[in-house]
Amino acid sequence: MKILIAGNAVVVESTITNLEMEQAAKFAPSALVIVDDNDNEAYRVSQGAVASVSKYGVQFDGFSADGNMTATLLLGHTEDKVEAAKETYGVALAALSHAEAIVKDEIAMFTRSVEDAFANVVVAGAATNDTETEA
């Protein structure tokens, strides 16, 4: 995770990519949710029109040129922007930092499972080795 403070904006760039979010939405929405030992939802990762972050989850509102998910958050007017960001978003960003690796691993596992399931699919009538197969 990277954090950039520009004026009164705090831009959080995740290690979770837009492609990973799309794959999770298609194949494994549950990969975007971390549950506690009692199967209660403890953290959720989502994407929407407005960014938000708390100790219970993050909603990204865009992605960087590199394809990493971003959340643009606002600070009040203050002299010490870093300290204000820590006070306002510190606990939430610490939770995101912890959740990123878990979520990325879950997305990768589900994506691999889908790819493995379709590894040997044969499409009847489809061209193989530059020759047509008769169905």
Q: What is the straight-line distance between the termini?
A: 51 Å
- Main sheet attributes: strand count, strand direction, barrel closure: 4 strands, antiparallel
Whole-number tally of structural domains? 1
> Can you tell me the residue ranges where pLDDT is under 50 for at least 5 consecutive residues?
none
Instruction: Classify the beta-strand content into a percent band.
Output: 25-35%
Helicity level: 25-40%
Rg, alpha carbons: 20 Å
Average pLDDT confidence is: 91
Number of continuous helical runs: 2
Give me the secondary-structure category. alpha+beta
- The shape is elongated
Per-chain topology:
Layout: E1 2-6, E2 9-17, H1 18-27, E3 33-35, E4 41-47, E5 52-54, E6 57-60, E7 62-63, E8 68-74, H2 81-117
Parallel strand pairs: 4-6
Antiparallel strand pairs: 1-2, 2-8, 3-4, 5-6, 7-8
Helix pairs in contact: 1-2
